[in-house]
Amino acid sequence: xxxxxxxxxxxxxxxxxxxxxxxxxxxxxxxxxxxxxxxxxxxxxxxxxxxxxxxxxxxxxxxxxxxxxxxxxxxxxxxxxxxxxxxxxxxxxxxxxxxxxxxxxxxxxxxxxxxxxxxxxxxxxxxxxxxxxxxxxxxxxxxxxxxxxxxxxxxxxxxxxxxxxxxxxxxxxxxxxxxxxxxxxxxxxxxxxxxxxxxxxxxxxxxxxxxxxxxxxxxxxxxxxxxxxxxxxxxxxxxxxxxxxxxxxxxxxxxxxxxxxxxxxxxxxxxxxxxxxxxxxxxxxxxxxxxxxxxxxxxxxxxxxxxxxxxxxxxxxxxxxxxxxxxxxxxxxxxxxxxxxxxxxxxxxxxxxxxxxxxxxxxxxxxxxxxxxxxxxxxxxxxxxxxxxxxxxxxxxxxxxxxxxxxxxxxxxxxxxxxxxxxxxxxxxxxxxxxxxxxxxxxxxxxxxxxxxxxxxxxxxxxxxxxxxxxxxxxxxxxxxxxxxxxxxxxxxxxxxxxxxxxxxxxxxxxxxxxxxxxxxxxxxxxxxxxxxxxxxxxxxxxxxxxxxxxxxxxxxxxxxxxxxxxxxxxxxxxxxxxxxxxxxxxxxxxxxxxxxxxxxxxxxxxxxxxxxxxxxxxxxxxxxxxxxxxxxxxxxxxxxxxxxxxxxxxxxxxxxxxxxxxxxxxxxxxxxxxxxxxxxxxxxxxxxxxxxxxxxxxxxxxxxxxxxxxxxxxxxxxxxxxxxxxxxxxxxxxxxxxxxxxxxxxxxxxxxxxxxxxxxxxxxxxxxxxxxxxxxxxxxxxxxxxxxxxxxxxxxxxxxxxxxxxxxxxxxxxxxxxx
Length: 820
Description:
The chain is built from eleven helices and 45 strands. Strand 44 and strand 45 form a beta hairpin. Residues 1-26, 681-706, 713-767 and 769-776 have low confidence and may be disordered. Helix 6 packs across helix 7. It has six domains: 17-158, Jelly Rolls, CATH 2.60.120; 166-284, Jelly Rolls (Sandwich), CATH 2.60.120; 292-380, Immunoglobulin-like, CATH 2.60.40.10; 392-474, Immunoglobulins (Immunoglobulin-like, Sandwich); 480-577, Sandwich (Immunoglobulin-like), CATH 2.60.40; 598-659, no CATH class. By secondary structure, it is α+β, with helices and mostly antiparallel strands.
């Protein structure tokens, strides 16, 4: 039976025209358009009619206070945005398109709630539709019309407080709950005030503020306290609220705000029906800056201290700005307020001070809502650093102090001393007994030496520091390098060769032992860091050897210092050549040949000089003067070819005959002249005239030196080794050796009966002697003579034709003139 009925119904539907069904499903409601300002309770919404109130473009997150009053007959109040309203406008199903929480179907009476515009990417237009008709789009739900109705709408935007984590209308089904706020949103600073307000829209519900443990009991159905006393709203039937401040022990602890629509905990609503209510949660966080200072609130001059305000309550980021004033005694911006100088900003700041004392630091914060608050702390600044004492002066600075000449005044001061605060005073001491408190002193000394001067610098905090300097009192004379020694410096050398240098200097005050010599082989670099790059002691000493490892041109500076540090310098350049390359065998042979040639030349010259010396002795031994001997040897060498290794005899020309001196030739000439005057000599005549003849020479023995020289000469001639000579007497006048030295002349004595030669022939004229005592005439030309010196008597024979002669006394050898 039932199957037959269903079949009949299906057939009936198939017979209905399709166009008719489509037309009825697409019937648009054709609502009237209105605005909140023009829509009021005097507006009648007739049966089968609707009015669409355009709320305008609303921004996501904005909250509006909406009040709706429906009277006379129920109707549907529906909320759409610009997109979701299209199905309604087209007469299609809109059940899933409108905002269900703020919308009310079959509404009759007064409805007040706070609605927060849902989030979206862009702002949208929103609509509230007052629907008083039945159409296919409502699927038979809600009010279906049937009578005229009246309604009013009031819409106003709510200005939220800065810390409003939740403000909206919500809906809960029966026997359910909603964790409205938890997590970071409920980690609050101690002192934060929470205000929770509720406006019921439908049914009765509960609101509880819970701790972590309470929330655990609530969610598990446990037994115990499930909400914080004084922080709950139960069975909300009208506008209600509570205010609660987070205690110190719950600061930063997790809290939970729960909307409840169940029958627990006891004392609340029973949760038997769905509820809708508006809930607003507001925070009032504390604005209380707190300053923490490291180093226990103290620091030292010039050392930064960290000021930390991170412990200030700011979990809700309620503080918008932080401003630090480091010294309440100073008004940097000159605005009359000594605590608002913005010397730093931010949660943390670094502060340092250059003067000691207590500093009052002020931190001022301003909240997001413009509320300001300040706090202060005191930082003790101490000076624990001693000054740095430094001595300056107008003398000549040297290593370790100053140099000044004797009796010259030097002024020392402490102006260069420094301190992290300031140097309050300076104290000077010198000579172990003198002291003076002043910024400068003037000193002088008569004696040369080294004198100590002490400076003590102190600051206002009692810190002090001392420094000691030495004043060297010196002479003013500087050493002077000897130019002669400088001119002897080598100007070149070879790589790796130790080149000797010797210098000397004189100083009018310092002795040689007190002079110091520095040889600086790299005058462009200050190796000893004394400020002068040209006096480094790369080598020291008046004599040194410089050695260079590379070829090139090197500048060298020699500086001599005296004990007073006076100095003189000399710069010179030395060229260092690379070592010559090793030669070939031919080169070595050439060098050997060259050395041999030089050796032979030296030997030849030495031999020739040696033999020439012997030849000179041979010639001078024969009575020739040095000039005559040299002239004779020159004549011999020019008249004949002399072999290289000729003997002395050949060089003297004695191998060709004897040589006669000029005086000997003159004597022979005079003898020939006398012979021509007196005739040839007979033995008797020679005997009679022997007293008047030139001195004769007896042969004498040669000295050992002469004999050795003669032996060497003979050995050279014979190519034999000379044998030692013994003392001999040479008697042959024609032998060669006998002519080396002249014999000692025998004293000439005029024999009785001799004839005196003219004056000047052999001897210079004798002094006139007194006439002899007349003697008795001797017979036959003989004459008796008495000596005027010794009174001896002797007789002489006067030569014929001679009236006056000079005779020698046979007793005393005195020459006597005899005759008239």
